[in-house]
Amino acid sequence: MTPARTRLAPSPTGFIHIGTLRTALFDYFLAKQTGGEFILRIEDTDQTRLVAGALESLLRTFKKLGIEPDEGPRIDNENLIVEKGDCGPYVQSARLDIYKKYVDQLLKQKDAYHCFCSKERLEGMREQQRTTKQTPKYDRHCLNLSGEEVKARIEAGEQYVVRMKVPEGETIVDDVVRGSVKFQNADIDDQVILKSDGFPTYHLAVVIDDALMKITHVIRGEEWLPSTPKHIMLFKMLGFDVPVFAHVPLLLNADKTKLSKRQGDVAVEDYLNKGYLPEALLNFIGTLGFNPTGDREIYDFEELIAMFDLSKVKKSGAVMNLEKLDWMNNQYLKNMELKEIIEVARPFVSLDLDNDMIARALIIERDRINKLDELQEKLEPYVAEFQYDSSLLVWKKSTAQDAKLQLKQIKNFIEDLEDASFVNSEAIEREVRAYIVKNELDNGSVLWPLRVALSGQEKSSSPFELLWVFGKEKGIERISKAIEFLG
Length: 487
What we know:
Elements: E1 5-8, H1 18-33, E2 37-40, H2 54-65, H3 96-108, E3 112-115, H4 119-131, H5 147-155, E4 161-164, E5 170-175, E6 179-184, E7 192-194, H6 202-212, E8 217-221, H7 228-237, E9 244-248, E10 251-252, H8 268-273, H9 278-286, H10 301-307, E11 318-319, H11 322-334, H12 338-345, H13 356-365, H14 375-383, H15 390-393, H16 400-416, H17 425-438, H18 443-455, H19 463-486
């Protein structure tokens, strides 16, 4: 298999969109599967949209996810400083001289031309096209200006842009996901490739960068498919090899509309900040629109790399099913070692997770949460002071007197248990249930007041789990407090 060179080329304009992460993963899977390279390139030619700190944030987020580019900008773990030495070839604003060289080549070949049209003229042209229901495109007003006139106008200080000259005929995009897609060149605009500020537009810069960086596969969202004919034209005009294109489907809300912030989170950082584990998020996003086997949902990262098949990515939009993400994150949480769960929980919990009791509570409650930001609320009752509600301690049609009696008897039984019975909640459950059977009691009359005595809540973990968390001494202490409360 020929090694693939793939790239992710985000703009540092804010947060990392979930869709960008999905593209990054497909890029990464293909590169690693083939023994190739995954490259990070920063596309910052639109200087008006740049957001301070966005690049550092992007790099920091990728680092949290464990996605390390083979080439491109890096970030220092401690100081979060972009290492400037690595950025030159991979940040577009540092490559203006390179783009200018290829613009000159296109002008010389007559594959591009200068355009001096004012903003007002262009707006008037577009309005007329809308009125007459024409395809919106530049009318080539400046196409046939003589070299002398162009030179004179430039020397006079007139502002200009450079446009590519779209050739006649048709352009076919052979797309791995969408198959062969045909475009009529007559419907394609003479795209601006060099702006009046001297910066190239995305369309020119992306072609030159992909060619010079020897990118073999361009994986991106389907919204870029209409631009691809322009890019193919530029590749050919400049004498470059055309890479393999794959336009992946959009991510959708549950109602099948385009994923947007109006209906929920779209930033990778938001999901991490809520306590979705990087492994779960990578598993979930990496299988949106592509499931390696179709018969299971949980895959480790190495499996996703080994099983990835770009040709099997679905054409239809992939739904961001948050219930599935919650379930998946819960599965990862359940299977973590105690030491691991304690470490990932620290940023989300203000309690002392090194305390043995809190650690045991964490083991119990992590099975009942979907994300880590739910842990604080789940753990607080284990350490909070509480007052009993007498009505809660009584099981259904039973009485306060019977509840008190049952608590006294179960307290005596627990006091006589060997410490070995407290090794886990299952061992405690076996002992307590054997006690209930032996004394011909019903479960509710014993277990309900016992659970409320231990938790002080209407809804809580089982009494067996609570006894294991609190331990014998503190468990007896809580039961005694409930007996005292019942008078």
